Amino acid sequence: MLRMCSGVSKNAVVIERKTKLDGSSVEFACAGVAIVPGRSAVLRYTVDRDRTIAGGIITVPAGTVTLGHFWADRPYNVYHWLVDGRTLAYYVNVSATPQIAADSVEWLDLAVDILVRPDASFLVLDEDEVPPDIDPAYRRTIARALEAVVTSPQGFAREIESASRPYL
């Protein structure tokens, strides 16, 4: 299923393809604002309807601008959610190495997510969705991602704010 993100220019459409551990996938058409194939990408889209996340812990309202940050050398990607230019939250998707091309970003969702709030408080989500028989390499990837984010959530938040600033 392809979901069109509002505010996408026809000339700059980049497909974000998220594949889950069960093999299902979802695609989003987004604006590619900064892409270095094989290395990194920043994708932008505007949320088209209210979305309740993490079992009701947070609602992402329609109109929220999302800057998706992807790196080939990190075990996660980040959705930086902004409402009227102010950070609502950072949503970290633990993931296997993404494939970043000029027209697409494809990544494997390893189920675990981390919600980091602007005050640097955080919640680790969906650990119960990790299959018991998951590949041990993926378990190590999950551990590396958790360590990278939760050992210094304030530093993490500063880094994402700085990375997003040029695209606001």
Key descriptive features of the protein:
168 residues, alpha+beta, FomD barrel-like fold, seven-stranded mixed β-barrel, two-stranded antiparallel ribbon, 2 helices, 12 strands
By CATH reckoning, the class would read Mainly Beta
Question: CATH topology, which one?
Answer: FomD barrel-like fold
Ranges with pLDDT <50 over ≥5 residues? 1-11
What would the average pLDDT be, to the nearest integer?
92
Compute the gyration radius: what is it?
Answer: 15 Å
Give a written overview of the molecule.
It is globular and about 40 Å long. It has one domain: FomD-like (FomD barrel-like fold, Beta Barrel), CATH 2.40.380.10. The N terminus is likely disordered. With 168 residues, the protein is an alpha+beta fold. The strands form two sheets. The chain has a seven-stranded mixed barrel. It has a two-stranded antiparallel ribbon with strand order 5-6. Helices cover 16% and strands 47% of the residues.
